[in-house]
Specification:
There is one protein chain. With 104 residues, the chain is α+β, with helices and mostly antiparallel strands. It has one helix and seven strands, in the order αβββββββ. The strands form two sheets. Strands 3-2-5-6 form a four-stranded antiparallel beta sheet, with no helix packed on it. The longest helix is centred in the first third of the chain and has 18 residues.
Length: 104
């Protein structure tokens, strides 16, 4: 095999390997959570918004549970809105379950 042909094959191989690497890709996770009131009761029909590297919005079910899929890992401001009430907090999202307490 000629040296030029070997070099060409090597360049194509390295390009194929580099194109499959997740360069700059952010880790993404599914996040589940529960919104509870001051007395521990589940808060239904509350909007949950994560604002940070990306923005995600969910609504709680009758058990106060919500689910957000494919969330980029990072630091977020979590806003819970229910009727005319709003609560904000900051947290690092890395996956798993969020237990959010609101003051009402």
């Amino acid at each position: 095999m000629s040296r030029l042909r070997v070099m060409g094959t090597l360049v194509i191989f390295l390009a194929a390997v580099l194109l499959t690497l997740p360069i700059g890709a952010q880790e993404r996770v599914d996040v589940q959570g529960v919104v509870r009131g001051r007395d521990g009761s589940p808060q239904m029909r509350a909007a949950v918004q994560l604002s940070g590297p990306q923005r995600y919005v969910g609504v709680t079910n009758p058990q106060g549970e919500f689910s957000l899929r494919n969330v980029e890992v990072g630091d977020y401001v979590v806003t819970v809105i229910q009727g005319d009430k709003m609560h904000r907090s900051s947290m690092k999202v890395t996956g798993g379950t969020l237990d959010i307490r609101v003051p009402w």
